[in-house]
Amino acid sequence: MTPTHLPGRVAIPSLPEQTRTPPSPNALESFNTAPADEVHETLLACLHSPRWATRIAGHRPYPDVDSLLAASDEAAYDLAPGDLAEALSGETLPVLPESTYGAAHTALSAANAAYEARFGHAFVICLDHLPPDEALDHVLAGIRSRLTNDPEEERVVAAEELRRLARGRLVGSLRGAGNCATSPNDAAPGKKQDAPAH
Question: Residue 33: exposed, middle, or buried by beta-carbon count in 10 A (0-12, 13-18, 19+)?
Fold first, then answer.
């Protein structure tokens, strides 16, 4: 059985590993010295905002990973509404694990359709450090809860989730192992090439 795509566009990052090591100094050095176009492409896989990616790339070199992550957060906080809309539109379908039962597909599809109809963009949520077996329930609960937000409240929540996703994806890219929900061109990771959902 092959993994199936979730109906709708729910950005679910890959499942976090139980033990994580910080990126090595060599990884940061590679990021600092890589060609600008390569770094820009890597950054766009972390957050689909050219403005954010250009800003992060343009402030290299970073003395340490904490400085890079602080710059990532600051640039994400500064996204204008148009940048945020562009970043949200870049979120793509995750792949559900083969073991996901049909009722979960149906429930998630219905909840996400209601969310997109209300807010006009993909639902995004960061599930860092959440046990894999709780991810789908957490996503469903998140969609249902956030459906009660007004559009401005939800824009703020979605922006914060994107900031958290970008941060996790950036750390994952430094480790050389994707911690991305989805990239603009690839299927979502989750279990080595993969299923969702972080």
Answer: exposed
Tokens of 3: 């993994």
* Cα distances (Å, whole numbers) of residue 104 to 109, 114, 155, 162: 8, 15, 26, 24
First to last CA, the chain: 22
* Residue 25 CB neighbours (<10 A): 10
Sketch out the chain's domains with CATH numbers: 4-175 (1.10.3330.10)
What does DSSP assign to residue 127?
-
Q: Which of 40-44, 51-55, 136-140, 156-160 has the lowest mean pLDDT?
A: 136-140
pTM of the model: 0.76
Does residue 141 have a cis peptide bond before it, meaning omega lies within 30 degrees of 0?
Answer: no
